[in-house]
Amino acid sequence: MNTIRVVVFDDSNSIREAISLLIDSNPAFSLIGSYADATCCIEVLEADPPDVVLMDIDMPEVTGIEAVQKIHSHFSSLPIIMLTVFDNQDKVFESLCAGAVGYLLKNTPPARLLEAILEVYEGGAPMTPSIARKVMQHFQRNESLPKKEEYHLSPREKEVLTHLVNGLSYKMIAGQMGITYETVRTHSKKIYDKLHVSSMTEAVVKTINQKLLGF
Amino acid sequence: MNTIRVVVFDDSNSIREAISLLIDSNPAFSLIGSYADATCCIEVLEADPPDVVLMDIDMPEVTGIEAVQKIHSHFSSLPIIMLTVFDNQDKVFESLCAGAVGYLLKNTPPARLLEAILEVYEGGAPMTPSIARKVMQHFQRNESLPKKEEYHLSPREKEVLTHLVNGLSYKMIAGQMGITYETVRTHSKKIYDKLHVSSMTEAVVKTINQKLLGF
DNA sequence: ATGCGTATCCCCCGATTGCGGGATTGTTAT
DNA sequence: ATAACAATCCCGCAATCGGGGGATACGCAT
């Protein structure tokens, strides 16, 4: 069986050494590169493509997140595991958005790290439990806020609002809906009234942010 | 040490029995309830609150997802693990949005199930690796589309645009930014020009939909 | 039948916006 | 140093928007 080829980016010498020892101690893995910064990450990976990348999140010159973006856009299927000392909420999500598939704290036990490498290699997404929970909570926020307020818009008003959200003017909406400009205005007035706003823009922003319409 | 109190909702008798055996075989856990449907889930949980809920996703009468919504809105801190036979993409996300914190396939080995119950109890979010990967990929889609177009807005223009997106009028923005109404208009003109739109609303919609600003 | 909500149309008027210019002061880049 | 750009301000004018009315007509409930 082939070994899993790993590359590490981390500005800390001691961490790189520790990881180097860890990986080479297990015949199933081999460390094919280890770098203190990610400035040349694309070139490095191009020259000798690994199976998995370990990326420190805080690095000088090019930050881990920037590096992930670059790597992900060049080698979209190459899995990257982020390593970090703090499980900062924002950094987690920035990394995930940038293209990382795993997120581990540096105090992860060595055995777990090897397990994680194997896991991404097999299509998983290793995370510490606390980070996994943060990710889950991120989904819940989306759906828990919007239903707190209910503005009972009539069907016709929703229709007008949809067009407003698409950026149409009253005149254009009138044309689209086959009604008069004045009617569109009347609907809009009631919409603004019900949404407690006083301009088209405010209505549109509120509609989008609170997902008042089905999209 | 107290045992972790578990309740199960699953319409399959065999699964309920298997879980019952599994949980009672380990002194660290105790099964305090086991129901074939979730119609009375709120009453049940209110009468005898558990630490963790296991919820089958496909059930007659009330679906697992509906049950999760109800439970989550009544007992928002009660962790729920979904159990399912298929890792259907949509169901996963519906469940997560509804308030579940864990998501396991029914072929999960018994030991892993107990581990997962412990994990949610301790604030984690157990998932099978394949589901974890799906969740991760969900984040990546968001950021991969928007960078297809780049409108090189100046810093000042971005600032004005931010205020527009917050629903402010030119006059209000002028006040906020300490510049003249006329200057705000000039910036806005250039913004509309660069975004290829011709109204405040269109600019706002485009900005939000394409995530042109950092939010 | 009387009221309530919805949908439709109309008018007036002031405020705001969009578009066409033009102008000055910096900074940056070639 | 000359051009290019960003940021600031100004004017005029037409179009659009927002708020205030009022009006008709339909359906639906009590």
Q: What's a concise summary of this model?
A:
Chain A has 215 residues and is of the alpha/beta class. Chain A has helices spanning 13-24, 41-47, 64-74, 89-98, 110-121, 129-144, 155-165, 170-177, 181-195, 200-209; strands at residues 4-9, 29-35, 52-56, 80-84, 102-105.
Outline the structure in words.
The structure is a homodimer of 215-residue chains. Chain A is α/β, with parallel strands linked by helices and 215 residues long. In chain A, strands 2-1-3-4-5 form a five-stranded parallel sheet, sandwiched between helices. Chain A is 52% helix and 13% strand. Chains A and B meet through helix 4, helix 6 and helix 10 of A and helix 4, helix 6 and helix 10 of B. Chain A binds a DNA duplex (30 and 30 nucleotides) through helix 7 and helix 9.
